[in-house]
Amino acid sequence: MVAAIFLSLILLALVVVLFLFTQCRRRLGNIPPGPRGLPLVGYMPFLKKHDAKPYMALLKLSQIYGPVTGFYMGPSFTVSVCGYEAVVEALHNEDLNGRPDSAARRERTFGKRLGLMFIDGDFFREQRRFTLRHLRDLGFGRTSAEDMIHEEIRELIHVISDQSTSDPDRIVDFKSGIFNRSVLNILWALIGGERFSRDDARLTSLMDMVDFFNRNFKPQSANVAVPAFLLRMFPSLRKIIGLRNDIFEPLQNFMRSIIEEHARSREEIPRDFIDVYLKEMEKQQIELPEDQKQSTSFHVEQLISAIIDLFLAGSETSSNAIGFAILYMTHYPEVQRKMQAELDQVCGDSLPSLSHRPNLVYTEAVLIETLRLANVAPLALMHCASKDTQLRGFDIPKTSLLLINLYSVNMDETYWTDPQVFRPERHLDSDGIQLKKSERLMPFGLGKRQCLGEPLARNSFFLFTAALVKAFQLEAVPDRPLPTLDPLTGVTNGYQGFQAIVTPRISK
Ligand code: HEM
């Protein structure tokens, strides 16, 4: 009873403080214009009235208030950034490249600020540099990972062929899991050194855990600003605001057991990312003076958190990109025919490989157009102002949240003609021979926070999509409406599962 009264008083005090805070901040400086919303909740409940898709709603707001719009989301001053010029300026501003922190975001990282996606400052720079360098050395985005990716592709082709031949109408169900399993397995091979067979129970459980996160994580609770000490004092608050440590615990435990196995069986030459990381931990422990040993940023909890972030950031995005490409093929048979003709001519009977890539210009244009139109990560990851700064002449107060609308760049009507149309030719010169690379396209973001997995993502997207389009004729099911191109919105934009008639091809 006493605890309940105390809790209510603290919550009331918090509400009053937040109310006063939001009202004062609004009057500070030349902040970006925007709608006012309600005390405490800000404009969050009203965004939906502009559009159910958050990036569309923000784009519509920008048509009223301009490319840089400010409003409150709960207690946080939030800046929505739309259009090429404003987005580039924001992503090149060092002071806008921070990431927000909240109890909900720390759920996946042992209640601490760890991982790769939501860290800042020197810790971020050190961990990002290390991860990029060593994943690259292990083949991330290089030809040395190609054999392993090819093996994964052959298995996937087998699975799709089996589904097609076992159905009298050759109909295959392209659920999102079909590509996710392959993408996760590739990531796991680089990180954990082992490729699971497609039906290995460990791969299924890893996939289920990542899937469980994607279905249960509520982005809106990520910004609830309840101080950590209140959560410790009143554990029941966690349930009320939707914090879900149970989403992450199985993943954390899985990773810990694999890391322990690695530590027991380490060899001189590191086999994978976990080995490289363990070696670095050891080196730091040896080299650091006694009083600094605890301060190293390399430790097991950080390793677990980094791996979880690589999975969360890398699996859905990559498998959705492949899914959208296959879906577009069923909608645009002429594009598919042209791509297949090029693949047959350049690759002959072999699987498309990275060495073929420079000669696969049309295929490349199809992939670029898919990334542009699918907008797999339409609002990037949320950024945060680490200092008071300026954007397009407006004052952006420290700790403001930033929603960087990559969709508004990739679909900019003033630059791309008919942006809603899937037209790979827009990325080719007038003879259709050379690729035209455009800065006005940023599916992976830009600057210091640009996607860390881009090299692997681009290579695996190419290898999978080119191989599947070469191996199969993909057609819409007759007498049914074409499957929708409208995305499932969430943390990322996903394709909605669809069915297609799939006929194995023999390359000509
Ligand atoms: C088609 C596939 C992918 C797309 C479209 C994509 C896109 C993005 C975007 C837009 C961001 C946010 C940039 C920002 O906030 O400014 C991002 C961040 C990130 N991505 Fe990707 N991504 C893809 C695949 C991957 C893969 C395969 C991995 C890892 C294996 C990965 C790891 C990350 C990480 C760790 C971050 C956070 C980087 C940071 O905060 O410094 N992504 N990605």
TrEMBL record:
Keyword Calcium among record annotations: no
What keywords are assigned to this protein?
Answer: Heme, Iron, Metal-binding, Monooxygenase, Oxidoreductase
Q: Which cofactor does it need?
A: heme
Q: A single GO BP annotation from the record? A: organic acid metabolic process
Q: Which positions bind heme?
A: 451
Species whose genome carries this gene:
Daphnia galeata
This one is known as: Cytochrome P450 305a1
Q: Which family does it belong to?
A: Belongs to the cytochrome P450 family.
Question: A GO CC term?
Answer: cytoplasm
Q: Which Pfam families match?
A: p450 (PF00067)
Organism ancestry:
Eukaryota, Metazoa, Ecdysozoa, Arthropoda, Crustacea
Q: Recorded GO terms, molecular function? A: heme binding; iron ion binding; oxidoreductase activity, acting on paired donors, with incorporation or reduction of molecular oxygen, reduced flavin or flavoprotein as one donor, and incorporation of one atom of oxygen; steroid hydroxylase activity
